[in-house]
Design brief:
The chain is mainly beta and 1237 residues long. Helices cover 5% and strands 64% of the residues. It is found in: Membrane.
């Protein structure tokens, strides 16, 4: 022993403290190491007959145990004796017991302890006292090894269950002859606490399989005078919380009083909840020697209460339990509805060997259990049960079962059922039959064999207002598969009869006569009649068939007439004759067979199959003649007279096709032949094999692309393709495939609106080759005078790594190919040149080379700028790329830069920046502006981010005025085909928070409007400046900032007003800005220059507050007079003044009647009829205008104060050329041409 024990260093002594460092001990299967141990004794205590241990500390003890190396334990044959009270000759007092950083390894389980701290005293007066103890930071990690498959042993017969031994073990009382429990001394535990305990089960890779954490444990207990008291037990863990307290008398009748409360957290497995949160309360009372009462309450999966008592000191443990379940619900299978139980009462009386059970309650769920009321009365033992009554009220009826089952020697049962008006529509919705009657089943299954017998089946009921019945009996066993003395099923006037035996000497017949199947199943209709007879050995039966049907209909299937007739003899040499005919077989809208006739006759050595059919989409006609050699297991034959009628025309073989099949080799051989069609000719130039391995050369001598046009119902493609190829597969290496596709003088055309896009391809070559698990794809596409695309793409190791290689070249692909889609005067020019090389693999592709769009020039009416020169260059370098581009116009240019990275294909990133300085944009008939953008777009799989600034230092915005009668969208107008319906929804709608690919959209764009920006629109002439910010986050698009209106003039109320103050503020919704505008009458037109009159507009845009004011303040009528005439009411009698007021009032009135006028115009066939005013002051006019046709416009105006009328006719000769005639006091003719700059 001393050889396996060592101490590196010893310091001090036992009285003052003995310190041992690096203590090692080793024995068979056990290795121990202690970094430091300290032991201190007080020998002075020995005088008072006491052992005083002042300190016992272990620091970093490590224990490794290999159970496979441990010596075998010797059996303990000594008899256990009853524990007795102990009187100690000496007291023990351990003042400090400390263990720090303990590590124990037992095979594949590692146990660590962070800190243990305690103190113990033991004496005759108080017994054992454990001072407050701390046990913290325990970790148990158990590694579960994968099971090693052992060699298969000879199968041993299952040993029968020894029920007699089980009964004998359960007969003695649970407590035996225990009269009292004697502890050697009293026990006092003020408190044992633990924190941060953890258990983990991991696999061989270290992946966590199960984890349980216990954050807190507190235990307080005491035993005095033969009474055990549990003052407190509290546990907090990831599984739930538990608390308990109670007491138990250890002598006499052993009375007890124990309560336990717990809350269980949801239990999950593989991230799925398998048991929801639950609360459990348990109470034990009474006595252990007489009757122990228990009360268990649960809430969660089951809201239940269990009450009762057990007698632990009596033989067989008599019991009396009652379980009441208010409700319960649990999902056993995710694809099924949960099982639900309600108002369940279960009473269980008797003992462990003989019991009586009574149950009542409601149950439903699991997809196949209808809402049912269950009532059970049963008696049983360990190995049998007798059902006195099992009643089930369900399916609008009820059923009652009686019987017994026994599993002492195999399984035996004898059950009888009485059904009363049970509706089986719950299980078979398309067949809602209501059944009543009797069923009787008995049988056995065990080592001696098995048998299932149904001696009585007598059911009757109704289905679809017709009587239905089933009567008969049947037996199945290991000797005779099926015996049916007589079985009859009737439905209305339809019946099916079966009788006979199925075994090695079968004699079974099935007769059916069903003249009217309506109502039997779903929408089944029609008539079936016939007989099927089976004789001989069941594995190779002889069949006689004679079945006919007419007018069958089931859902989308329809069959006007059909018959199956024949005889098949399989006794020795298979022979017979079988004929199947069908007329007018339709399924849905696509399959319509007018005739199907299949005739099979002959024997193994000489047989023939003839198939004839007519219909769509495919009809087949063929004849097969063959011979089968049973000894060699080979079949040889020919397929002739082949013709398939298909949507692409008739397909025929050019000759009879010789075919052979070797069943031993599992291989077929097909002779050379061709399949011919008006557009396609597919040939197999030589005989080929097909089986576990094969090699098939093939050749498309001609593929007319008009075939594709027929399939897609368009006329887009022209030309012919030729294809040569070969496909081969093997048992010991990957398959091989080659295909060479050539096309000459191909053409593609596609109508787009009123234009046609055409593309000529003089030559196309595509070669695909798969060899040794590697793919090579070569392409050469020559576009007529438009460029060339050449590809050489390689994909190696298709099954695993899928390595990329090869190249792709685009040679001067002209952008002018799109000019044919543009209008006269529009053009797009430029060319695409690219050379790319592929690398990496499909999961991490690499790309090297260039992709350039050069000499870009565009002239498009839809674009606000014409590009005079442009270049965009993409440079690829492995898993990164950069972009450089410059777009030039006549007097400005736009720079583009960008980069992308796909080193991690699932976390790719890309960035694009657009920057320009005073880039000129001209929007015809609307605006000219110069802007300096600096915008950055960043994207990754999760987010699309737009940020930057746009400076607009100069702009001239001019929008033609709307007519005075123009009406806004009505408040109650709805957009019928839009996602948002009402105007309020349109205003408050949220923009998409994600792209279709799932990226979140965020934007932060600042727009700076400079000092040289002017606006002329709807009577408003003003300069603009300000700063706006466009932000979008989580679908909310907001506009923030303000716009100032300076040096502005506004025509309103028939007057020319000056904008003295103009401020438009945005704080979220772009359609709801806040207005703060003051417009005053021109001081030069005021009678008194010291008086100012104007209009003040303040508030939200859709409901602003408009007030008329004057400075100094005057009454509203005076302020209005000054605003409209420049004079006070007393001085406003002049004609001009009256005209101003009248023009203003008329303008206000007309502005409210525009919608009514437009409706009147539509009644008389005049489009866009408008009523409005023109002119200022006493030159004001009322005008009416409208469109007689799309080309002819008429306008009529009358002066308000001079009475002069004016008629204008304008006719559009061409899109921008007009002829106009104006008739008033003078006659004028004009030829007008509209220019756009």
């Amino acid at each position: 022993m001393l050889d396996s024990f060592s101490v590196e260093q010893i310091e001090g002594g036992l009285q003052n403290g003995l310190v041992l460092k690096n203590v090692r001990y080793q024995t068979a299967g056990i290795e121990t190491h202690i970094a430091q141990a300290r032991l201190q004794l007080d020998f002075g205590c020995l005088l008072s007959r006491e052992v005083c241990l002042r300190d016992f500390t272990l620091n970093k003890p490590t224990i490794a145990i290999n159970t496979a190396l441990l010596p075998p334990s010797t059996p303990d044959n000594s008899k256990s004796s009853q524990m007795k009270r102990i009187s100690l000759p000496i007291s023990i007092n351990a003042e400090s017991l400390v263990v720090q950083n303990l590590s124990v390894n037992i095979d594949q389980t590692n146990i660590t302890l962070g800190n243990f701290k305690s103190a113990v005293s033991l004496n005759n007066e108080k017994g054992l006292t454990i001072a407050p103890t701390e046990i913290n930071d325990i970790s148990v990690i158990a590694k579960k090894l994968s099971e090693v498959k052992s060699e298969l042993k000879a199968e041993q017969p299952n040993k029968p269950v020894d029920w007699a031994t089980i009964e004998q073990s359960l007969t003695p009382a649970f407590l035996g002859n225990v009269s009292e429990i004697i502890l050697p001394f009293d026990l006092h535990i003020p408190e044992i606490s633990g924190k941060n305990w953890q258990y983990q089960a991991v696999n061989e890779k270290g992946e966590t399989l199960q984890s349980v954490e216990m954050s807190s444990l507190i235990a307080q207990a005491n035993t005095v005078d033969n009474q055990l008291q549990l003052q407190k037990l509290a546990v907090e863990s990831s599984l739930g919380n538990l608390s308990s307290q109670g007491k138990l008398q250890l002598d006499g009748d052993m009375p007890l009083d124990l309560t336990l409360k717990s809350h269980l957290e949801p239990l999950k497995s593989d991230g799925k909840e398998i048991l929801p949160a639950s609360d459990v309360d348990l109470t034990l009372s009474g006595s252990l020697k007489k009757s122990t009462a228990l009360s268990l309450k649960t809430k969660g999966v089951l809201d239940a209460e269990l009450n009762g008592n057990v007698q632990l000191a009596q033989d067989k443990m008599p019991l009396n339990l009652t379980l009441n379940v208010a409700k319960g619900q649990y999902t056993f299978v995710n694809t099924m509805t949960p099982l639900k139980i309600n108002d369940v009462t279960l009473k269980l009386t008797g003992d462990l060997l003989n019991y009586h059970a009574e149950l009542k309650g409601d149950v439903a769920g699991m997809n196949y259990i209808p809402a049912s009321q269950v009532e059970l009365n049963a008696d049983g033992k360990l190995y049998e049960v007798t059902v006195n009554k099992l009643g089930i009220a369900s399916l609008d009826g009820k059923s009652e079962f009686v019987g017994n089952a026994n599993w002492k020697n195999g399984a035996n049962w004898d059950i009888q059922a009485d059904l009363e008006k049970m509706n089986i529509g719950f299980f078979v919705p398309v067949m809602p039959a209501t059944l009543s009657g009797k069923l009787h089943s008995r049988g056995f299954a065990g080592s001696q064999g098995w048998q299932v017998e149904v001696p009585v089946a007598d059911l009757n009921g109704t289905l679809s207002s017709n009587p239905i019945s089933l009567k008969g009996s049947a037996t199945l066993n290991q000797n005779v598969l099926l015996t049916v003395p007589d079985l009859q099923i009737r439905y209305g006037e339809n019946y099916l009869k079966a009788s006979g035996v199925l075994d090695d000497h079968s004699d079974f017949a099935l007769d059916i006569n069903a003249p009217n199947l309506r109502g039997l199943w779903s929408d089944l209709k029609g008539r079936v009649k016939g007989r099927v007879a089976i004789s001989g050995q069941i594995t190779t039966p002889n069949l006689d068939l004679d079945l006919t049907s007419s007018n069958l209909h089931l859902q989308g299937f329809q069959l006007a007439k059909a018959s199956i007739k024949g005889h098949i003899n399989n006794a020795s040499l298979s022979s017979g004759k079988l004929n199947i005919k069908a007329e007018q077989l339709h399924y849905g809208e696509n399959i319509k067979l007018h005739l199907l006739d299949l005739d099979l006759s002959g024997d193994e050595q000489n047989h023939k199959l003839i198939l004839k059919s007519q219909g769509a989409p495919v009809a087949a006609n063929l004849q097969i003649n063959g011979h089968f050699d049973r000894t060699l297991e080979q079949w040889k034959g020919t397929i002739s007279q082949v013709k398939f009628e298909t949507p692409i025309g008739d397909v025929k073989s050019n000759q009879a096709i010789a075919v052979s099949y070797d069943n031993k080799q599992t291989q077929a051989n097909i002779a050379s032949h061709c399949w011919q069609n008006t557009d396609v000719e597919l040939c197999f130039p030589q005989a080929f094999n097909a089986g576990k391995q094969g090699n098939i050369p093939f050749q498309f001598k001609r593929v007319n692309l008009d075939l594709v046009n027929k399939l897609i119902e368009q006329n887009s493609l022209k030309g012919n393709l030729q294809v040569q190829g070969n496909v081969a597969w093997f048992t010991d290496k990957p398959f091989q495939f080659t295909a060479n596709i050539d096309g000459n003088h191909l053409a593609f055309s596609q109508k787009l609106d009123y234009r046609t896009f055409k593309l000529d391809i003089p030559k196309l070559t595509l070669n695909a080759d798969i060899q040794n698990n590697n793919l090579v794809l070569k392409t050469d596409i020559n576009l007529h005078n438009q460029g060339r695309i050449v590809g050489d793409i390689r994909l190696n190791d298709l099954a695993k790594n899928r390595q990329l290689g090869g190249s792709l070249a685009i040679e001067r692909l002209s952008l002018s190919i799109a000019n044919q889609l543009l209008t006269q005067g529009e053009s797009v020019n430029g060319e695409v040149v690219s050379k790319l090389r592929f690398g990496g693999n499909l999961e991490k592709p690499l790309l090297n080379g260039d992709f350039n769009i050069r000499n870009i020039r565009t002239k498009l009416k839809s674009m606000p700028v014409n590009i005079t020169d442009g270049d965009i260059a993409l440079r690829f370098n492995g898993n990164r790329s950069t972009l450089q581009g410059k777009i030039k116009t006549v007097d400005s240019h736009l720079n583009l830069t960008g980069r992308a990275n796909w080193a991690n294909i699932e976390h790719w990133t890309t960035e694009l920046n657009a920057q320009a300085n005073n880039f000129n944009v001209d929007i015809p008939s609307m605006a000219k502006l110069r802007f300096s953008p600096n915008i950055t777009i960043k994207a990754n799989p999760k987010e699309l981010n737009l940020s930057g600034t746009v400076d607009i230092p100069w702009a001239r915005i001019k929008i033609d005025s709307l007519p005075d009668t123009a009406e806004p969208v009505s408040e109650d107008e709805v957009i019928l085909n839009g996602p948002h319906k009402s105007k309020e929804e349109l205003i408050k709608r949220e923009f998409a928070a994600k792209t279709k690919s799932g990226m979140y959209i965020r934007s932060d764009l600042r727009i700076n409007i400079g000092k040289d920006v002017s606006l002329d629109a709807y009577g408003l002439k003003t300069n603009l400046d300000g700063l706006l910010s466009v932000k979008q986050d989580k679908g909310n698009l907001g506009l923030f900032g303000q716009i100032n209106l300076t040096k502005g003039r506004y025509a309103s109320f028939g007057q020319d007003l000056l904008i003295r103050k103009g401020l438009i503020s945005f704080s979220g919704q772009a359609t709801q800005p806040t207005l703060n505008i003051e417009a005053i009458r021109n001081p030069e037109t005021m009678e008194d220059s010291k008086i100012t009159a104007g209009v003040r507009v303040i508030g939200i845009a859709d409901s602003p507050e408009v007030t008329i004011f004057s400075e100094p303040s005057k009454p509203q009528d005076q302020a209005l007079s000054y605003l409209l005439t420049g004079r006070s009411l007393e001085s406003s009698g002049e004609v001009g003044s009256t005209g101003s007021v009248g023009a203003a009032l008329i303008g206000l009135g007309i502005s409210k009647s525009g919608k009514l006028v437009g409706s009147i115009g539509e009644v008389f066939g005049i489009q866009d009829l408008n009523l409005g005013t023109s002119g200022v002051g006493d030159k004001s006019k009322v005008t009416v205008s409208g469109n007689i046709t799309n080309r002819l416009q008429i306008k009529y105006g009358v002066g308000l104060f001079d009475g002069l009328a004016e008629v204008t006719l304008r006719y559009r000769l061409m899109p921008q050329l007009y002829f106009q005639s104006v008739s008033s006091t003078n006659q004028v003719f004009d030829l007008l041409y509209k220019f756009e700059f």
